[in-house]
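Shall we go through a protein fold together, starting from nothing but its sequence? Label the sequence line and the structure token line clearly, so we can match residues to local backbone shapes. Would you write everything just below, so we can both look at the same thing?
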Amino acid sequence: MKIKKICSIILSTFLLFSITGCGGSTGKDSSKTDTDKELTIVDWGGVYSESRKKVNYEPFEKKYGVKINIVSPIDNGKLKSIVESGNKQWDIANVMSYFAIQAGNDGLLEKLDFNVIDTKGIDKKFISDWSVGSDTFSTAIGYNKNDFSQSNHPKTWGEFWNLQKYPQARTLEKDPQGTLEAALLADGVKPENLYPLDLDRAFKSLDKIKPNVKQWWTTGAQAPTMLASSEVGLAAAWNGRIVDGKKKGQPIEIEYNQALVSSESWVVPKDAPHKKLAMEFINFASQAEHQAEFSKLIDYGPTNSEAYKYLSEDDKKRLGIFTDNSVTQIIVDSEYWGKNYNKVNDQFQKWLLQ
């Protein structure tokens, strides 16, 4: 009897530790599963986050009974350190599309489940193994309305580069992405022949305009501010910043012809705690109706062309969506920049110092 009791105690103790071992956790996040119904999403903050909250986060929470924690702003370096340290904090991040390619190639991201994520209507240029384009913005020609009229202003990058016809001071972004494409288009390269970029030709083209570049801007607000104050007459600027300045009554305008369209993308960090739920969210946010609602609130365009039918003509005009082909826009090749950004940026920054 005594032996049976001892054996029973040993067996009970063994079972207790076995259960604890299976259900317990020694790590901070290892107890989290997709059944927790919780997501941590990292985005850009500010108006971007507020708009996402209204059209994506809150509706998804309501539909799926999910709690969404928002972290901002996105930090590429932190994403890398979180993944490499195994400190699983983020389920989804919104990043520049070229960085998505870079991070995917570096093993920092999960491959997306396209059995869950419906990409119908989304241009393949906005899709990779690791990412789906969430929204678009463009680098376009901005101009001061006191210097130019709607009928008499540069309508192409070639005209933007024409210092004899348009001698006004310029401002361009202190970044090679978009800037080098504009330089090549100005030099006569056809949009379909842009990639891979002919760097020697691009820098020779930039040499021609460099004397008239009063400032190389580093924040989106700088270009419209310089335009509005007549510090410069022309700018290569983000469309949303110009549109926002127009809303505030500033004497600035935008030319969408040959605008260079970049995108931001949804990604899932490697070993994210709630991968399955993350795929469901990306599918939800990628739907045409939801992308359209986002574009109604903020000056970012949809990546899903089916969203156009949910936008008013005024919204389309504001966002630079021209379905009648009267304006040609060029999608920036995120795959090229994902593979080459660091090397090309080093060359660009050295060129600026010459």
Observations:
- The radius of gyration is 25 Å.
- Confidence is low (pLDDT under 50) at residues 1-31.
- Residues 135 and 302 are 5 Å apart (CA to CA).
